[in-house]
Amino acid sequence: MDVTVAEYIRRTVLKIPRDEIKTMLRKWGFLSETQLQTINFHQIKENISQDVVQLCEENSADIKQAAVLDIIYNHIYPNKRVWSVYQMNKTGEETEFFDLTDFKKKFKRRLRSALKNVTINFREYEDNAVWIRIAWGTPYTKPNQYKTSYVVYHSQTPYVFISVSVLKSNLPLLCQALVVASNYHDIHEMELRSHSLNSLKDIVFKRYSQNFQTYYPRPLQERNVAPENGDLRIIQENRNEKERIQRVNQEVFGDGPQPKLEFAQYKLETMFKSDPKMDVLDEKEPFRCLVKFSSPHLLESLKSLAPAGMADAPLSPLLTCIPQKARNYFKIREKKGFFPERFVSP
Amino acid sequence: RGKMEEGKAYSPDGVFAHLEMLEARAHEAAVKQEETEQQEEKLARLKARVQELRLQRDELRAKVDLQQKGQLGKEGVVSDPAQPSARAVLEWKIKSVKAMLQVFYLTGISGKLTKRGVCFCISTAYEGTYLDSYHLDLLTKAEVQIHRHSVPIFIPLEQIAKKYLQTDIRRFLSVLSDHLNAYAGRRYQADQLQDRFSDRIEGTLQRNSLCNLLVFNYNVSSKSKTFPFNVRLLYGDLCCSLPTEVTVSCTPDAPASLAETAAAHSDLFRRVALHKAFRSFSSAEES
What we know:
The complex is a heterodimer. Chain A is an alpha+beta fold. In chain A, 34% of the residues lie in helices and 20% in strands. Chain A has helices at residues 3-15, 21-28, 33-37, 45-58, 63-76, 100-114, 171-181, 197-204, 239-253, 298-305, 317-320, 322-325, and strands at residues 83-89, 118-124, 129-136, 148-154, 159-163, 186-194, 263-271, 286-294, 329-334, 342-344. By secondary structure, chain B is α+β, with helices and mostly antiparallel strands. Among the domains of chain B are: 95-184, 2-Layer Sandwich (Copper Amine Oxidase, Chain A, domain 1), CATH 3.30.457.50; 194-286. Chain B is 54% helix and 22% strand. In chain B, the strands form two sheets. In chain B, strands 1-2-3-4 form a four-stranded antiparallel β-sheet. In chain B, strands 5-6-7-8 form a four-stranded antiparallel β-sheet, with helices on one face. At the A-B interface, loops of A face α3 and β3 of B. Chain A: It holds the Pfam family CENP-N. Chain A: It is found in: Chromosome, Centromere; Nucleus. Chain A: One of its GO terms (biological process) is CENP-A containing chromatin assembly.
């Protein structure tokens, strides 16, 4: 077995939390159950990884199998990477049939025709998602297994989720291969990025809870009705306002959990508005400014601002439009025209 | 008395005693007054009760009269259309409205007017099983626009909207409902196949988001030997939950008789739901 492959497997196993190693190796399926039984999973990870490499040596693992283990790890822990969403367009109206074998063949062919030194692995999952792992080399060097890009694509959708590592120069090539393989015409990057792959999927596939007005009666338990028990000596002075805030919040954010985003960024290119008498800025140039909101869970924290009394309800649409507009990077310019209002670029 | 008056004028002890006495008197008077008041209240209540009962008695008398008069004219007991209470009427109204809304929901397309337009709900079903519902929030002020929706991204919503949304909203909803229902049906069949007939399938079932292309291998037993069949189901019509193209093939070394079986299966897949086809295979093989 290649020394680099052995080292790669060893390092991959070291990344896995100790309790999960056995399950993941089982999922991998490269080592037999009998072989797995011989490993003591209670020893320190350093030793576990050595044992695993030893067994892989016996089975003559090659880079392809090692890559599969890496895909499995990233599929279970996708939040360790930052994912960007790309959108593809096509003009034709023919029905898409998406033949997976066809897709894989076209993708590999396109990528390899431009760059021979790449390792490409595919893995399909139950939710119609195809995971693609690409390790990049150069025309003169072998693929570097530690410089990998991941692509997640759901068949017959125009969205691709890409986690590029360091080598951004390979991105155009990757995009081309995707467009060709999926029968689309072009692809562009959306202004939507997060660590949480599933939340990105929820946003673009519209799987998050939107509050639609319907007549279909929902059971009352679904709505969060605050319990009426409590000390009768305590009187809620602003009960009406509290209820109004709850109602507005529910209309805007819906009932269910929010998709998980870590930040929203607003790039302002607007004119500084000051008292004409003060005349702070002589030049009539836009005042450039970047506003960034960060949070472990941005949308949930925005949702709790008004009920916590820290902001007025309803919140600014610039904040609440994030899931619907499917973006968390905004550029705000002056609206050219009679009314100098804020203008959000598409 | 004299002694008291004396105390009142001269000694402090006497003054206190006098005050005490006055206090006691006042207390007595107050108690008496309270009693009288209570008596009066009670009296008033009883009078009111008497009025009530008199009224009731009059009502009942009137009813009895009515009943007697009615009995003279008609056969059977005339049930008095007693004035239903306002609460009962309200409850009945709510119940019948809920039933109406449930009926609309069950028809598959229901809607609710909103401030800026309409919100439609399309619910899908396949052969009696209700599946997912999808929503469309439309704006109707200027031209008709889709404000938000929960239609899956792989359903060609934009195409359908471009064709029909502006001109014929009914047709738009009908076509969209056909797409959604057909998709729900195809997915249901594929899920049923994977859930209930996984033992007959060799390897993985290749499918896609729209469930309009299924490729898999399954086992067919003939003369106590099993042979793998490969089947490719293509659903060319997105509004249909049955395949438009079916290719069933067996391995080259399979006996010739199996070719007939393959053709029969192919025909069956074209006509019958996927899981039902498999159910009939199982029962055919058992017999």
